[in-house]
């Protein structure tokens, strides 16, 4: 039996992922996860002004308790911002853990809160760029970096343009159910990465928008190396291929968690000019440059806890601390 089958639906080649709770989610070992869900459900009924301090405290606790995540953030910031002083990078790191904790608690609103409150919590600017593309009959890909508020904006923008996104199935079935319930709450479709790119291309050609998060390290086999804040980074060349095959415009889309319980602000930028160029490295470089532009304006909002530079172009060891491999269950 597949290792994922107890927890996850095995989607067919083109069918969207169906958010559901498998029987395994009710096993006693998941009582802790259900307790967290209960707390998030309660938080979802409260004003953000009250829950944001809780999220900030949670983020600072995560920072204090998880040395390896602190180290990953420190390494990423040192690589990407060598011209900033150590104190400035430490300030960005602290702010990152705060907004990450706040975004986690905000999931309670996204998943369990009233829909009108979710919609009121997200302001989207630059919709004229998306509407102009749609008005001309063009196909669209929203280029979205891993910002802490990406789930909120992605869930809401589908009200403007029917769309879909690709997601990674989580090991914990309750986390998987909760995240994807929020992501699909306003009608967005979800596709598993295991389904490949064919269903993505089919949907793009049918006129659906693609909410695309490209900035993880998937190893050297399918990647090219392109600079990201001046550091060579294993980058998937998928965006250029999809844009060319679907004749789609690529619009950068950035999300910011706002202070004082004011929700989220998302900004749609104009389509990338001259994209794709047809060369994988050139297109990957253009994509990373577009991501840099949005991240540099709010560096604390980027998910620096991810190991973005794990694969090195010369085959040298990863700059991150080694993580012990988990034993597989039979």
How much β-strand is present in the residues?
5-15%
Helix and strand sequence: HHHHHEHEHEHEHEEEHEEH
Strand order of the largest sheet: 1-9-8-2-5-3-4
Q: Total domains, how many?
A: 1
Number of helices: 11
Helical percentage: 40-55%
| Low-confidence blocks of residues | 1-10
Give the biggest beta sheet: 7 strands, mixed
User: What's the count of strands?
Assistant: 9
Q: How far apart lie the N and C ends? A: 9 Å
Oligomeric form of this entry? single chain
Q: What global shape is seen?
A: globular
Q: Rg, please?
A: 20 Å
Can you give the mean pLDDT? 91
User: How does the helix and strand content classify structurally?
Assistant: alpha/beta
Question: Explain this structure to me?
Answer:
This protein is of the alpha/beta class. It has one domain. The protein contains 11 helices and 9 strands. The chain has helices at 31-43, 48-65, 67-80, 86-112, 115-121, 127-135, 150-157, 173-183, 198-205, 238-246, 280-296; strands at 122-125, 139-143, 163-167, 189-192, 209-212, 224-228, 231-235, 248-257, 264-268. A 7-stranded mixed β-sheet has the order 1-9-8-2-5-3-4, sandwiched between helices. The protein has a two-stranded antiparallel ribbon with strand order 6-7. Helix 1 crosses helix 4 (86-112), helix 2 crosses helix 4 and helix 3 packs across helix 4. The longest helix has 27 residues, at 86-112. The protein is globular and about 50 Å long. Residues 1-10 have low confidence and may be disordered.
Question: Helix and strand layout, with pairings?
Answer:
Blueprint lengths: L30 H13 L4 H18 L1 H14 L5 H27 L2 H7 E4 L1 H9 L3 E5 L6 H8 L5 E5 L5 H11 L5 E4 L5 H8 L3 E4 L11 E5 L2 E5 L2 H9 L1 E10 L6 E5 L11 H17 L34
Parallel strand pairs: 1-9, 2-5, 2-8, 3-4, 3-5
Antiparallel strand pairs: 6-7, 8-9
Helix pairs in contact: 1-4, 2-4, 3-4, 4-8, 10-11
């Amino acid at each position: 039996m597949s290792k994922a089958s107890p927890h996850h639906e095995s989607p067919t080649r083109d069918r969207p992922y169906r958010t559901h709770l498998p029987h395994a989610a009710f096993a006693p070992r998941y009582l802790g996860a259900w307790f967290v869900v209960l707390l998030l459900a309660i938080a979802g009924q409260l004003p953000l002004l009250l829950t944001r301090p809780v999220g900030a405290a949670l983020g600072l606790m995560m920072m204090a308790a998880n040395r390896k995540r602190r180290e990953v953030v420190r390494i990423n910031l040192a690589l990407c911002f060598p011209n900033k002083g150590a104190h400035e990078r430490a300030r960005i790191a602290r702010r990152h853990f705060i907004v990450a904790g706040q975004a986690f608690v905000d999931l309670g609103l996204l998943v369990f809160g009233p829909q009108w409150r979710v919609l009121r919590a997200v302001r989207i600017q630059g919709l004229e760029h998306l509407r102009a593309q749609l008005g001309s009959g063009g196909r669209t890909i929203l280029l979205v970096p891993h910002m802490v508020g990406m789930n909120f904006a992605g869930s809401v923008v589908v009200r403007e343009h029917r769309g879909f996104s690709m997601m990674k199935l989580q090991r914990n079935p309750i986390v998987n159910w909760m995240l994807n319930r929020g992501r699909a709450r306003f009608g967005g479709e979800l596709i598993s990465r295991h389904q490949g790119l064919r269903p993505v291309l089919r949907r793009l050609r049918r006129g659906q928008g693609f909410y695309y998060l490209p900035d993880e390290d998937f190893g050297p086999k399918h990647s090219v190396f392109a600079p990201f804040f001046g550091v060579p980074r294993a980058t998937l060349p998928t965006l250029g291929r999809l844009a060319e095959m679907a004749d789609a415009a690529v619009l950068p889309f950035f999300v910011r968690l706002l202070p004082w319980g004011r929700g989220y602000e998302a900004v749609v930028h104009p389509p990338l000019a001259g994209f794709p160029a047809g060369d994988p490295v050139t297109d990957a470089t253009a994509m990373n440059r577009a991501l840099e532009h949005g991240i540099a304006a709010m560096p604390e909002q980027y998910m620096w806890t991810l190991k973005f530079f794990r694969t090195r172009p010369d085959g040298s060891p990863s700059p991150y601390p080694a993580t012990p491999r988990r034993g597989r269950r039979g």
